[in-house]
Amino acid sequence: MKFPLFLLILVSILLFTVSCTNSQKETAQNNATKEVTNSFKEIEKIYLSNIEKCINNLEATKKALNFIDKDIEYNKIHIQKSQEHYREARAYFKKIEPILSFVDVENYKTLNAPNLLKVEEEDATNIKINEPFGFQPLEELLFLEIDSIGNIEEEVIQTIQKNADKTLQRLRLIQRNTNLSVYKNYHFLWLFRDAIFRVALTGITGFDSPSGISLDDNKIVYQELENYLSFFEAEFQNKEIYQEWKESLQKSQRFLTQDDKTNFENFDRYSFIKNYTENQIEIWNKTVKDWKIEFPLELAIQNDATSLFSDSTFNLNFFSDQQLGQISKDKIVLGKQLFNDVNLSSNKKMSCATCHQQDLAFTDGKKFPKGQKRNSPTLMYAALQKSFFHDNRAGSLEGQIISVINNKTEFHTSAEILLEAVKENSVYVQKFSELYSDSLTEQNIRTAMADYIRSLAPFSSKFDKNIKGIENTFTKNEINGFNLFMGKAACATCHFAPVFNGTIAPSFRESEMELIAVPSKNDTINAKIDEDLGRYDVFQTEEKKYFFKTPTLRNISKTAPYMHNGVYETLEEVMDFYNRGGGKGIGIDLKYQTLPFESLNLSKQEINDIIAFLESLEDE
């Protein structure tokens, strides 16, 4: 069969057109990739230059201390020089922070870790204990270990030198192993957003600045973000979005250092987050659409999150040790039925709701449930953490549930018996058949119950509505309470917004434990440490005695009594404990206390304002 000549010509033209179109698309994609690669190469030059300047200033920090002798006035000059060089080194570290914290998480954590012993417990046979080094220990030594006449002990100098050497060694390692050309434009947007969140959630709280220079630090971060963004200007199809970014970033810088009267204690963190951080999330989402970004996965915070304080902010899969399916309303209802079913326990008298009552924010109002040695923690926002129980012994909600099932003083049963108990209920059998592809299994029972708990994070409090701009009902006292909580009172250096628990923002990879030295009784005269050894009981690590997980403070007005042993009945008592400096302030002297020993020096009004803020965290 022969085709007419005109048909052959037409087919040839069409094939040529398609080929040209594909070639043009491929060329455009290649050009876009090259532009992004070139942008990262330019950023890499700045990044490496800043690392070098950081190294040089740390070297100068060390060198200035070599001149210390017995002449106090002479020493003061060189101590001051050492401090000045440290501040410069710190400034350059803050310049590299947005990149380093994203591309090299572990080295960033090491260099920016608090001056606390680092204990890593993989299992009973793999426990690592490391002395801290990096910028925070250096800052404490250089600024907080100077005596009243401005002198510094030889032992402190030696510690500074040793710490600085380790920090320099790590910085040089990072410098030798940097290659940013492999990153894509979506990586840039992720690290850009992370940097904004880090400023809001830890930066302005003083989390990583023992001497209180965090406002200057965060201005530097914003300056560097503005600089980085300039290399991606060509990515913007809508140039107005780029201009919107520049304006917002510059306003943030000005707000961080408004005038000479702005200092760490009086900084308005509420207005900063409400007017700048939340607005920048909106601009970021516009940028994602403008750049036509397709993210390959979700991090802790959803790629399309519109606020830090929303029930759609977090990616629940990130906090789970298994891939979650679609959490439907029907699965949540089923999970709730199981949660409240006493027939799942061996004596047919106990359900999850026995110790976790909905009207008390899923606590029970008691110091201890019957037969237990620890206070029942709230299950509200329990899904938004990486470890479970007061001692962090479980790594997932499902793991927590199986512990309750097996516990002789709780359900006192087993997964196998639990499965048989559920099978006896025809309604359950039908529901599992409808909702799960593999029907009724022991794993699906735990998943259904866990999914119900995952639904208990509504972010519907008065605080949430106000900081998102939905309402304008926040009082002056509540605003001041939030600012104190995030600043002077140092609450937010352990209870991280937006969940106000111990899961460290903005990566949310780790749920912290603290040793605050809780007393056995509410006694400030003859206080004694509570006998519960906390985390120590898991692996018998001496350095982890009396450590407990940092819980969420959301709905705290409903969850009395407080602490793992229920020792305090009121928030006023809790605040008094912290205001005194924790256990140390009432005479309990423990080597590894993580809470600062010094009094917070909060006035009665300031304490009342913090409590007013805490009460505003009650969900509808």
TrEMBL record:
GO cellular component: cell envelope
SUPFAM superfamilies in the record: Cytochrome c
Gene3D superfamilies linked to this entry: Cytochrome c-like domain (1.10.760.10), M75 peptidase, HXXE motif (1.20.1420.20)
Cytochrome c domain boundaries: 330-433, 476-618
Metal-binding as UniProt keyword: yes
Localization annotation: Cell envelope
Keywords in alphabetical order: Heme, Iron, Metal-binding, Oxidoreductase, Peroxidase, Signal
Listed PANTHER family: BLL6722 PROTEIN (PTHR30600:SF10), CYTOCHROME C PEROXIDASE-RELATED (PTHR30600)
Protein name as catalogued: Cytochrome c peroxidase
Species of origin: Bernardetia litoralis (strain ATCC 23117 / DSM 6794 / NBRC 15988 / NCIMB 1366 / Fx l1 / Sio-4)
